[in-house]
């Protein structure tokens, strides 16, 4: 018999990622991550599914990732952590068996890429530029960018490229210096490597750039390919080795990333195609996938299209055409070869499954049923698409998750982060309180206000320099519409959100008396202090916030707050510092507003996605209980 979802079901929800097609196109290797309740951590393992849908676990875990097929198809390389050793590269026979450890890098291995001949591996590994310094040595800081959310103090650790022979041997370090390396790619002939790395200008922290470089695979002096000021996030080679495909922007700004081509010997990047959508290369909390430049000259890439993420196909200079554009899909990983595309996508059936489709279009065939197999008897309420009209006539897309019951129902407004992220139409494996509250008769509303990604660049930029000021009415008018329609009970409205959503939850509770309760998480309330404590504070202040620091800070309107407020925050959040939560808590407490603050030890800004499973269960439960308690 079907039952409603419980927050404890989080422990059973699997998350697939990083699909990799085998050279013959018959199998897909991918990573499955699942919460480990007993260890309060995550178990990750490599799985393989055949194109006829036969899936099986391929490695035991508990911390395996980055599966990469040897071009000959004879083996699979992957990253694994065994015991107390840092993660290293292992090789596994293509049909399974005993894995062989390949590397012994002191601080472990990161991402890996096979050479075209399969005789070498390109390894992104961490090195310590000052490895002899004691842990308690004073930290001397003369530039911003000295910390990063999730990593904490960066210190002298950097990521650099190594080439490792497949048969073993000493890794050869290709890159060095103060700036870490990002994405990298082998040339088709295996003689060169293109990669992304910042430059070591004195003001690199104030005007950052991430350049594309090319280095000989045998070592030597790297050559810079892109001009000064450019920001690149991915790089791929043309089949003839003459041209590079780059995702990025010609300058640091608020706006879309686009596709460009640049000669491999250096030059001025030219647009590869033109589309008023953001090219999504994939990142923590953001879907998408690295673009693929196929041997036949066609390019595959992901864009946000409203709340969805689609796969498009183009050629240099041509108009893109959709390949995967299901109205209920959000793509979060992709690989392609021999006329096929393997991808991960969320839908209204599952938060994530493995699919395959033809490069020239056709059916998106689902190969796995990870979610249904894990929770076979759980009934999920699907989001219903809605469109609202803001007071100035702007169309705002949103979704409703409805519970049962007649007449006006209690309503939870949930606000996404970013501010340039976006909600989508898929069922949600993170915000489980959507399902538990809906099961209790609530209506859940989430919208993509101006500033959200997927609606064109002018819409994307509309909130910059006017946080709260430009998008407040997008939320309040949508809520009022549901009140007028008899869907929402005006006496039982609650607002919540995380990151920018936490900012906006605080803002709305201070600027309107609509809400009976507020639940801001990972919040910002004081844009002045954020500029000095966030790992991205200086740049966010210059690019996103501008001169409206005072007008856009919820703290300046705190005397208006009456709604009982639950604050939740990660102790080690370096993006929106814990001090933001403390400021808001103390400001409310001193005014005797009912307030409670929950701090999650060790939690980074991404705690709602990859924090301790027990913490994720806890915040879901607390949001549900606070909303119900203060709307009786």
Question: How are the SSEs placed, and which strands pair?
Answer:
Blueprint: E1 3-4, E2 15-21, E3 27-36, E4 41-50, E5 55-57, E6 64-69, E7 75-80, E8 88-93, E9 100-101, E10 109-114, E11 120-128, E12 147-148, E13 152-153, E14 157-165, E15 172-173, E16 181-186, E17 192-198, E18 210-216, E19 223-224, E20 231-237, E21 243-249, E22 258-263, E23 270-271, E24 281-283, E25 286-288, E26 292-293, E27 299-305, E28 308-314, E29 321-324, E30 330-337, E31 340-346, E32 353-358, E33 365-366, H1 370-374, E34 378-379, E35 384-389, E36 395-402, E37 409-415, H2 433-439, E38 443-448, H3 457-461, H4 472-484, E39 488-498, H5 500-511, E40 517-521, H6 527-533, H7 537-545, E41 565-570, H8 578-590, E42 595-600, H9 607-610, H10 613-629
Parallel strand pairs: 1-34, 37-38, 37-39, 39-40, 40-41, 41-42
Antiparallel strand pairs: 2-3, 3-4, 4-5, 6-7, 7-8, 8-9, 10-11, 11-14, 12-13, 14-15, 16-17, 17-18, 18-19, 20-21, 21-22, 22-23, 24-25, 26-27, 27-28, 28-29, 30-31, 31-32, 32-33, 35-36, 36-38
Helix pairs in contact: 6-7
Which features would summarize this protein structure in a list?
632 residues, mainly beta, Rossmann fold, 8-stranded mixed beta sheet, 10 helices, 42 strands
- Biggest beta-sheet profile: 8 strands, mixed
User: Which CATH top level class of the domain at 381-629 fits?
Assistant: Alpha Beta
3D shape: globular
Strand numbers in spatial order across the main sheet = 35-36-38-37-39-40-41-42
* Count of helical stretches: 10
How far apart the termini lie comes to 30 Å
Radius of gyration: 24 Å
**Quick one: CATH superfamily of the domain at 381-629?**
Alpha/Beta hydrolase fold, catalytic domain
Helix content, binned percent? 10-25%
